[in-house]
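INFO batch 0412 | record 1 of 1 | parsing
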Amino acid sequence: MTDLQNTLTPKQAAKYVGISEAALRLWRSESKGPRYFRAGEKLVRYRRADLDAWIEARLSAPAAPESR
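INFO prediction complete | emitting tokens
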């Protein structure tokens, strides 16, 4: 069970990943973006571990060294 004290609000989550709160809201409506859960009808929360996993999944591979 997730302790709500250890979760982030959409505003906090947006700041954590460096995007707007509106982007998170849009992604939720489109079933995109980082995982979240509803702790009630309107109370949305994000776990930091889910945000970290979402960021990690989007890291690009290191560029190959240029051949000279």
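INFO post-check: DSSP finds three helices and three strands in the chain.
INFO record closed
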